[in-house]
Amino acid sequence: MEFFLQLLVNGISLGFLYSLSALGFVMIFKSSSVLNLAHGELLAIGAFLFLAISTWAQLPIWLSFALTLVGTFLLGFIVERFFLRPLIGEDLIQVIMLTLGLGIMFKGLLLFVFGGDIHEYRTFLPEGLSLDLGIVRIPSVNVATFIIGILFLILFGFFFKYSSQGIYMRSVADNQSAALSLGVHVRRVFALSWAIAFIVAAMSGIVLGIINGINVHELSAIGLKVFPVVILGGLDSIGGAILGGIIIGLLETFTGGYISTSLREIIPYIVLIIILMVKPYGLFGLVEIERV
Amino acid sequence: MRKLQFRPCGNFNESYEEELAIFETDFGRVSMLIGLLLLFVVIPFITSPYTLYILNSIGIYAIAAIGLNLLIGYTGQISLGHGAFFGVGAYTAAILATKTGFPIWLSIPAAGIVTAAVGIIFGLPSARLKHLYLLIATLAGQFIIEYVLVQWESLTGGAEGISIIGATFLKIDIGSDRAFYFLIFICFALMTWIAVNLVRTRYGRAFIAIRDNDRAAEGMGIPIFRYKLLSFAISSFYAGFAGGLYAYYMMSITPEPFNLWLSIWLIAMIIIGGLGNIPGSVFGAIFIVVLEELLSLGTQYLMNVGDSAGAAITIAPLREFVFGLAIVLFVIFEPKGLAEVWRVIRSNFRLWPFSY
User: I need a surface site. Which of A92, B21, B104, B228 has the fewest CB within 10 A?
Assistant: First the structure.
């Protein structure tokens, strides 16, 4: 029982990280239908930018946090403007290859600047948040990151629900040409959605970095873990991404705990194939009906 | 003998056979003969072993890239699992050679056939899935095959892999780079010939119809699922065949090289070379292999120059950067790839000086 509870808690906290990482991915897909294979590198960029500003430049945490947000926001704009925009309307394979190429570029650059070692942030989160649930104990870091994550989810929920830009983005996602004819600046929305996705990815990257340490290879590998998560939840559903992340996290820890540790890495992909065969649009995804 | 015809003057095809002909004029035939002569008679005897090694790698990857181009460029089904299929071929050839003692001329085609079967299994999702969903399914296939290669230790030797010693072909030792060069490039010429002709047959045209509009293709009576699976099978056959050659050439294989990176590599080849273009896949293979070699030579050079060894280690990741940059630049500026560049150059020569 104790083992089961421990696995449950581990699974949920791992799954929470997955959902957080999947958010930026879903956001890009939702507004511009681009399957972003560079997502892991986006996480890494945010995490390392924060590392560079907070630990190397020794700026105060709140300032470095704000600077990271601004930096990734600008980077998102630049990437959209120079790399993605020329490809609007191109074939899927070209766009995918572009994001793959971008990912490889980013990874090379990050490895060049920061090396392949594991880095640590200096500790800044308040101690003493650890929860003691009688049998299992949740470390302080996890609780703190959980709170940060929830805060961000709420913030973005409000952004999409009430702000005008958020509504524009949702309208473009829903029907691009209808939005265009109603006066939404679709290109600006694309740019904005990439910029925001960069920010979200940076946030997730920082949270991942706080818990696991920051490593280029690990973070970019998580970018591939995003696929089972978003397919399970539905490619264009934020709620689905959150739930999907938690399910995949639980699945991983329980497989690792009860069946075999080596199967753990692969089980999300097996589930992925099964879901694709049974219910390709996921739990909450929008079912596209194709007409000739 | 009929008179050779060299100059095309306009498009005056009167039948579909003429339209489908590979060579418009005899110029192409003659230059192909010259090319084959260079390939088999001149190049292997004047190049250094190192160049031969690079040429052999190009040949192996070109075969796999042609197969992948049949799938992605002609049928329009994207696969991110071809690195693993390549690995399945390599392992099949190695296992057949070491455990059952198959000769090379049997084990390499057998590797292709086994890989084709695996390809069909992982192509099954294409019945229901299209575009990016299929891509994600093949990505999952890549990871699952990698896992099987590492975990099925009794068959694959786990992380230590398998080594093949003494490749012989009809009792001739082909362990050397030069002997293997002939094997690879004979296979390469054969596989290219098959691919070029395949796309002109009803099968190839069905593939193209599926790529352009699968519903319309179905409406015209093409059983699309069967053809998609066929395309997966053919394409995996190519990958497995290339993998088999790779296993014999490298003499020892581990699961490591057959990862997602290899899949990306192969797709990069056909993107840079040109989608839906058989010579393009060869150009792409040449470009990528040569780029990779140049980059690693550059790092090695820096490593050897006195005290810059430290610098060389730090710039090593820039290889990845340049590789990614090459992909990005090609996708943005020349999405039709090197084949298009080649076509432009050729037509410039043909039309010079009045290139209007």
Answer: B21
